[in-house]
Amino acid sequence: MNTIPQANLRQAHTLVNTFFAILFVFLTLINPVFASITDVTLSEEESNEILFHIHAYYVEDLPISELSQNSLATLFEHLDPYSRYLDEGDLDAIFSTASGQYTGLGIEVEERESTLVITNTLSNSPASRAGLQKGDVLLFVNGQKVADKPLKYVSDMLRSAKKSTINLIVSRSQTNMEFALQREEISLDTVTSQLLPRGIGYVSIASFNNHTYHDVANHIKKLKSKYGRTLRGLILDLRDNPGGTLNSAVAISDLFLDSGLIVTTKGRFFDANQIYQAQRGDLLRGAPIAVLINENSASAAEILAGALQDNHRALIMGERSFGKGSVQSLIPLGEGKTALKLTTAKYFTPSGRSIDGIGIKPDVEMNKEVLSQLSKAVIMDRNNNQIKPEITNLLAKLDSHLLAEK
């Protein structure tokens, strides 16, 4: 593994150039449960190909010649946590998510101190219809105990299960509950909206996939049509948005900007260095925007928030965002059935800020408790007499900003 044959270098270089021409670059906080490089057996040719890509395209210049004398597993330990080897199932999951559709149950699961916790159920999915909830702890899958199993193991089990019905047992408030769910194709609806009183629009973006740009544009057009004219203001909710594709974040930023820089990316190879500029055409015609973020707003969501903040186009409200300022690219391996998800660049907001490990600081800070009470349902149903006074005051501040005379 100390040398890389020139033929392999030429082949790998052709592959990666072709792939970057297609351009599938993404930014996300929540990784699918990827295979570990230690779990796969690679040929010498495959290992050399991986070494070449890391040497040529990784965002930092690592001492590959020294590290490669050990093992690929050791080498990957020197990469950032977002750079991973993807097996065929991992690759399929990424493309499905980016396309806005996948087949499954509709649950998002996170490993917390050796327990598997459901962090979200997708709307209009088998999980949400069955009544699974955020915070449920996964105990059994098809009768097999999974409470002490790694997330990758459980993910593979669910993916490869031959039964059409998946039986789950979860713990909720110290009570075990059983659910029987059918896997089905799920459309990932990332955008919801509603017209609020006095011509204010509300748009929530859950993540960024290949359809999100068109969905946001269509939702705003429908809100304008319902109101009968240009909206007087817009609340853009990016809370708990883990990111998605770079192109989607750039395109959505451009919806609200007439000019100016959106984001720049910088890396070690030529194509990693990009400048994204806004084109003329503000969908809101200058109407005020308030953007809501929290500690789970990450990556592509931070690009959008940063672009609107630095261009003085929106008031950012909430709490400091996650702070993931790196860009990952998918680089195919071999015949393209496996790939590397490799960090190839850092991104910078229009003012030149790197938010990696720092996050976007809101213009108006809110504490976590108040921010969590300002839920989507509260924003969309302001006539609810159960709303606490401090939330009512916060909604009034939002309206004051959005309805201010230009």
From TrEMBL:
Q: Which InterPro entries match?
A: ClpP/crotonase-like_dom_sf (IPR029045), PDZ (IPR001478), PDZ_sf (IPR036034), Peptidase_S41A (IPR004447), Tail-specific_protease (IPR005151)
- Keyword check for Transcription, yes or no: no
Print the keywords alphabetically.
Hydrolase, Protease, Serine protease
| Source taxon at top rank | Bacteria
Q: Where is the PDZ domain?
A: 91-173
Q: Recorded GO terms, molecular function?
A: endopeptidase activity; serine-type peptidase activity
GO cellular component, alphabetical, reads: outer membrane-bounded periplasmic space
- For this entry, list what GO says about its biological process: proteolysis; signal transduction
PROSITE patterns given for it?
A: PDZ (PS50106)
Record family assignment: Belongs to the peptidase S41A family.
Q: Which NCBIfam families match?
A: prc (TIGR00225)
From the Swiss-Prot or TrEMBL record, give the protein name. S41 family peptidase
Give the source species.
Answer: Pseudoalteromonas xiamenensis
